[in-house]
Design brief:
Helices cover 47% and strands 15% of the residues. It is α/β, with parallel strands linked by helices. The strands form two sheets. Strands 5, 6, 7, 8, 9 and 10 form a six-stranded mixed sheet that branches. A four-stranded parallel sheet has the order 2-1-3-4, sandwiched between helices.
Length: 295
């Protein structure tokens, strides 16, 4: 009889152990995204747009929108992350851009057992939508993601319908500056180039890819109708007056008419969930520039 009791007790222990293991597994599954580290401004913005921000425990330095994100602990720049910095946040999920790194650091995080999801960050509508879709899936907000994508598409449709004829679209020169007299001009295959197209305008520089330093000769040859900059870039340049003192700009149609448009950095170039609104607003501002309303 004592043996029967021992067997029964053993079975009871095994049942209790099984119950505990199942409970732990359920908890891990249910709360897999309860502690999220986001390394990418557009990724962080997407998390907030989906209403999943309560799970965020840390972000990278490019995560400046919304304001609440800027107050979160930082794990460094998205391309210079450290495994120690990320793991110190005790994350259960790490969301990064495809070009985040270094790769060794992210591999170390994965070896510990933390899920790392690499998201596309190409400057295309498709990549922006895919980022929303994947983040929505990871944080359990698939319906919200679908609605966000639908809203983005609606805004882009309005932006496209609002654009004028391609042959009369304003020529736009995008200048990236961070002060110190360093001015770089966007050619093809950049975020700025893609945004200009989505806004229904034309990039004034198409003879090279990426960025090159601003020169007087290049500015005059580009003959832009409008100069486009980021808000922080314009501030670092000292405002419109100081910006237009840069080589050749006063000799362009844009410089002579003081047609300068500035938008928030992440809003303009981040290709996040506000992409549609950014394209729509940019198009409106470009077409509303003095002397271009009827162009």
């Amino acid at each position: 009889m004592a043996g029967a009791r021992r067997r029964a007790a053993g079975q009871g222990d095994r049942v209790r152990t099984l119950v505990v293991l199942l409970a732990v597994a359920f908890a891990l599954e249910s709360h897999a995204s309860d502690r999220i580290v986001s390394a990418g401004g557009a990724i962080t913005e997407t998390i907030y747009a989906l209403g999943a921000q309560d799970a965020l425990v840390a972000v990278d330095t490019s995560s400046i929108y919304p304001e609440q994100a800027a107050a979160l602990p930082k794990v460094g720049y998205s391309r210079a992350l450290s495994a120690e910095g990320i793991l110190s946040m005790k994350p259960s999920l790490v969301l990064v851009n495809a070009d985040s790194g270094p790769t060794e650091a992210l591999n170390q995080v994965e070896k510990i057992g933390v899920k790392v999801v690499r998201l596309p960050n190409e400057h295309t509508v498709e990549a922006a939508e895919n980022r929303i879709r994947v983040v929505g899936s990871e944080v359990g907000k698939t319906e919200e993601a679908d609605k966000l994508i639908a809203a983005l598409r609606d805004d882009l449709k309005v932006a496209s319908e609002s654009a004028g004829k391609p042959e009369t679209a304003p020529r736009v020169l995008f200048i990236y500056t961070r002060g110190g007299g360093l001015m770089n001009v966007s050619g093809k295959n950049t975020a700025a180039d893609a945004m200009i197209a989505l806004a229904g305008a034309r990039n004034a520089v198409t003879d090279y890819e990426g960025y090159k330093p601003l020169t007087a000769e290049a500015a005059v040859a580009a003959a832009p109708d409008v100069i486009l900059v980021t808000a922080k870039g314009l501030e670092s340049a000292g405002g419109v007056d100081e910006l237009l003192k840069q080589p050749g700009l006063t000799l362009t149609p844009a410089g002579q008419a003081r047609r300068v448009v500035a938008l928030d950095d992440l809003y303009l170039l981040g290709f996040g969930p506000r992409l549609g609104k950014a394209a729509l607003e940019l198009g409106q501002k470009l077409r509303a520039s003095p002397g271009l309303a009827q162009k």
